[in-house]
Design brief:
The protein has helices spanning 46-58, 78-91, 104-108, 112-120, 135-140, 147-159, 178-192, 211-216, 224-237, 264-272, and strands at 17-20, 22-23, 42-43, 65-69, 97-102, 123-131, 163-168, 196-201, 244-249, 254-259. With 273 residues, it is α/β, with parallel strands linked by helices.
Length: 273
């Protein structure tokens, strides 16, 4: 694959064919994130995207699930997205669904008719950087949405037959606020019903914009013990009808995976141990 930058996708997409349609992230202002700071966002030429499809076709591969990369493919103009989806289906008629990253603001810019058209072409799941259920934390991290805006736009997705996966971060509220953040985030997830929950416990690189706030004392990170307790409280409270959960901790070799609610007690026991 001719890929620019670091490959990034949720673990639930590890079995999908990743088709690059852009480089970087169109938003790229989250203060904790370093994934795309080294790349100026640009959309890849249609010809380049088709060459990648032809490369896969020549290998005899017949993907059924496609993940569009990079950081926020859904933000592209709907006509361009439709052109890419139609082209992919022309080469691979057996494609069952397309998934991709999105933002709350990106969804708000799509009309109801556009959401319907994308769903009819096979767009299924959008991954959103929800991060926290606390508005003041979203402001601090320079997210592009408020909690109420996220509720509204996820409601639109569901109304048009689309699903979503939630990216969240234990530790994002800072030291001493783990329980508060867990309870607010669990309430949000319980009401918005994501199909997947991916928890990247916060790790701040020295080059991240947030690091200057740590140096100045304006933000004090939680330690991993507090993050583990926050994760436990989160898993206690989420009311789900079958969401897949995957929790990562960069500072320690520890991971919690399962489906809610069936695997709740197993995941809590692992955290307890």
């Amino acid at each position: 694959m001719d890929y620019e930058g670091w490959i990034c996708r949720g673990p639930m997409e590890r079995g999908a064919y990743m088709l690059p349609v852009a480089a970087g992230c169109s938003y790229n202002r989250c203060r904790f994130c370093m994934l795309f700071k080294h790349i100026a966002y640009r959309e890849l030429p249609i010809e380049q995207i088709e060459q990648e499809l032809l490369r896969i076709k020549a290998l005899g591969v017949k993907p059924t699930r496609v993940f569009l990369g990079d950081g926020n493919a859904f933000c592209m103009d709907t006509a361009r997205l439709i052109e890419i989806l139609t082209m992919a289906r022309r080469h691979f008629p057996g494609i069952e669904c397309f998934n991709m990253d999105a933002t709350v603001t990106g969804i708000s810019k799509k009309s109801d008719a556009e959401l319907n058209a994308l769903r009819e072409l096979g767009v299924n799941r959008l991954y959103l950087g929800i991060e926290s259920g606390l508005d003041n934390v979203l402001v601090l991290m320079q997210k592009d949405h408020t909690v109420s805006q996220a509720y509204a736009q996820i409601g639109r997705l569901h109304a048009h037959g689309l699903s979503y996966g939630a990216h969240i971060m234990t530790g994002i509220a800072g030291q001493g606020r783990g329980t508060e953040n867990a309870e607010a985030t669990a309430e949000f997830l319980s009401h918005t019903k994501p199909e997947a929950i991916i928890n990247f416990s916060m790790f701040v690189h020295r080059s991240a914009p947030l690091y200057s706030s740590i140096e100045s004392g304006a933000f004090t990170p939680a330690d991993e013990f507090e993050n583990l307790k926050e994760e436990r409280r989160l898993l206690e409270l989420i009311q789900s009808d079958g969401a897949d959960y995957d929790g990562f901790h960069d500072c320690i070799e520890f991971r919690v995976r399962g489906r809610l609610p069936a695997d709740r007690e197993k995941m809590l026991a692992k955290l307890d141990s």
